[in-house]
Specification:
Elements lengths: L1 E4 L4 E4 L7 E6 L12 H17 L3 E6 L6 H10 L3 H18 L15 H13 L3 E4 L2 E4 L36 E6 L14 E3 L1 H12 L5 E7 L3 H16 L4 E7 L2 E3 L2 E2 L10 H7 L2 H9 L7 E3 L1 H27 L8 H19 L4 H16 L10 H20 L7 H15 L4 H16 L3 H13 L2 E3 L7 E3 L2
Parallel strand pairs: 3-4, 3-9, 9-10, 11-13
Antiparallel strand pairs: 1-2, 5-6, 6-7, 7-8, 11-12, 14-15
Helix pairs in contact: 2-3, 4-5, 5-6, 7-8, 8-9, 9-11, 9-12, 9-13, 10-11, 11-12, 14-15
């Protein structure tokens, strides 16, 4: 397996100190509000990565934290007149509802900053004792001048950084780029007792303390997060972690890219931020997961109405094939050996999927190979035939295959008919289709056909087509929504 390591900026063979155990940490959410869809890109991508490692026989210890001490949490708590813990606990629960709705596998640890305050204070004390940090007026700063490799992750050079470009440089710092490890709490802020007075931790120390506490100061294998965290957060994590132990903090760094909404970077200032819950209410969690995994995690993901329509169409085709296979399995009593050529096709696709996921978790190729499997199943051509034992055998092979592959990505596990109906409902809403008018036109077309009035029949058909309705004479309800 090869992954792109942000630290070296190249693909590297993935090797762990313990061949059978992977230690992985991914930066989780700051819990002060409902999370937007961008917050879930990492959660969905690294869920696939962990599942793929486990599918290959690795034990994975996956840590995904909650930042429950932060200025945004404090501000919201003060605005609402409640304790910060009320805000953080509320939005942890809301995040977990969204997480469960997506069907993602639970992490091994979900540490909260407030549960690791003793470990944070101990960490900061170690840095002060090693003269890697210094205290000024109850505030503790990390001295980056004592860490010669500062900038090795982000490739930033201190000489190129413009200190004080946006804020006034703190004159108490030995170096303008020194960062806060511990700071005195102001009135109305939560605080904890420490050797330097009552205060609270800086942002960067929190993840480092949780990592080194859970993994006993050992070098971890994988650290993940969004590319916006490379600098300064992850850069500072390395400085702190290696400053404390003198050992490599993390061997492989993986970062997922940003999201664009209709060609513009998603941001609050542009007003184009979409909360994950709103997205799932409007569409479905399956749409969000497929959307994210259909693009490589290091590529910019552009979301538009057209792209969402494409995803809905793709999911409809996949779930229609799953439903067909399930119906055949249910309604045919006898079974026999499946077609050798079909079995070989799926085995070849397994090899291609293995190769793609071993190549820096190429989920886009993974999704494309799922589609090849669906096409191969549809090409067997028994959709409108009387089913037999051979059809059942092939259906069983396909059904098992797609559920097994999909489970790694938390995809294709929904009840097929319910999912297909939901996709239809989405398109009805998106295209503003008047179902009452559809029924009226279909009724008029039936009457015209019975009267052999082909001109009117064609007229009603064309009107339905212009609404996005595809007619299927003699099949089921007689129409579908064009996808």
């Amino acid at each position: 397996m090869k992954i792109h390591n942000t630290l070296t900026q190249k693909k590297e063979e993935f090797k762990t100190s313990d061949p059978n155990h992977v230690k992985m940490y991914v930066c989780g959410p700051t819990v002060y509000d409902f999370l937007h869809i961008g917050n879930f890109r990492g959660a969905i991508v690294f869920n696939l990565f962990r599942n793929w490692l486990e599918a290959n026989g690795k034990k994975v210890t996956y840590v995904y934290n909650y930042t429950d001490v932060d200025d945004k949490i404090i501000k919201r708590a003060n605005d609402e007149g409640v304790a910060p813990s009320v805000i953080s606990e509320k939005y942890i629960k809301e995040f977990e509802k969204d997480f469960q709705r997506l069907g993602l596998k639970k992490h091994d640890h979900n540490p909260k900053v407030t549960d690791y305050m003793d470990e944070i204070i101990s960490f900061v004390k170690d840095l002060v004792d090693k003269e890697k940090a210094y205290v000024v007026d109850g505030e503790v700063f990390y001295a980056i001048g004592g860490f010669s490799e500062y900038g090795k992750l982000s490739k930033k050079k201190l000489d190129d950084l413009e200190a004080g470009q946006r804020v006034e440089v703190d004159s108490r710092k030995k170096n303008p780029h020194d960062f806060v490890l511990w700071k005195p709490s102001k009135e109305g802020e939560p605080s904890w007792k420490s050797p330097w007075g009552a205060g609270r931790p800086g942002w960067h120390i929190e993840c480092s303390a949780m990592i080194q506490s859970i993994f006993n100061k050992e070098t971890i294998d994988i650290h993940g997060g969004g590319i916006d965290l490379i600098f300064p957060h992850h850069e500072n994590e390395i400085a702190q972690g290696e400053g404390r132990t003198g050992c490599q903090y993390c061997n492989y760094w993986m970062h997922n890219n940003f999201i664009n909404m209709d060609g513009e970077k998603m941001s609050k200032s542009l007003g184009n931020v979409m909360k994950a819950r709103d997205f799932m209410d409007k569409y479905h969690g399956e749409v969000l997961k497929y959307l994210f995994l259909s693009v490589h995690y290091r590529s910019m993901l552009s979301i538009s109405n057209d792209r969402i329509q494409q995803v809905i169409s793709a999911l409809d085709r996949i779930y229609t094939a799953i439903e067909l296979s399930a119906d055949v399995i249910k309604n045919v009593s006898d079974s026999e050996d499946s077609d050798k050529s079909f079995n070989n096709t799926l085995k070849e696709l397994d090899k291609k999927i293995e190769k793609s996921l071993n190549d820096d978790l190429n989920s886009a190729e993974f999704i494309s190979f799922i589609f090849e499997g669906v096409r191969a199943f549809n090409a067997l051509g028994f959709k409108n035939k009387k089913w037999n034992a051979n059809h059942k055998a092939n259906s069983e092979v396909f059904n098992n295959w797609i559920h097994k592959q999909g489970a790694m990505a938390a995809l294709f596990q929904e009840e097929p008919r319910e999912m297909i109906n939901r996709l239809d409902e989405i398109l009805i809403e998106e295209k503003n289709i008047d179902l009452k008018l559809v029924d009226e036109l279909i009724s008029k077309r039936v009457q015209a056909r019975e009267a052999k009035n082909w001109e009117d029949s064609d007229k009603y058909r064309d009107e339905l087509v212009s609404m996005g309705i595809e007619l299927q004479d003699g099949v089921g309800k007689g129409w579908t929504i064009k996808k």
